[in-house]
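Please fill in the sequence for the structure shown.

STRUCTURE ENCODING:
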């Protein structure tokens, strides 16, 4: 889906020099959807085209920390055990 919106001409100079405006708008929208609980971290990664390993680096500077449960830890511990670590 493609979404467009209008920015008043007198504001373009203030927001456009700060980087890739369409990307920043997409990131802001996606983060708000994540915070509101309307999308998951997996869906956020898909929307932004991020690899799993990139997600933490994207979220931390925005003060959003990934949920890591005891179950997640146990799954990773078991997988490492099976690999001989």
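FILLED IN BY: designer on duty
SEQUENCE:
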């Amino acid at each position: 889906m493609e979404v467009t919106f209008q920015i008043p001409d007198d504001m373009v100079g203030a927001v456009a020099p700060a980087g890739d405006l369409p990307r920043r708008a997409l990131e802001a929208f996606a983060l708000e959807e994540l915070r509101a609980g309307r999308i998951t971290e997996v869906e956020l990664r898909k929307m932004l085209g991020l690899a799993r390993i990139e997600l933490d680096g994207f979220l931390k500077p925005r003060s959003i920390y990934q949920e890591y449960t005891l179950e997640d830890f146990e799954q990773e511990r078991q997988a490492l055990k099976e690999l001989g670590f």
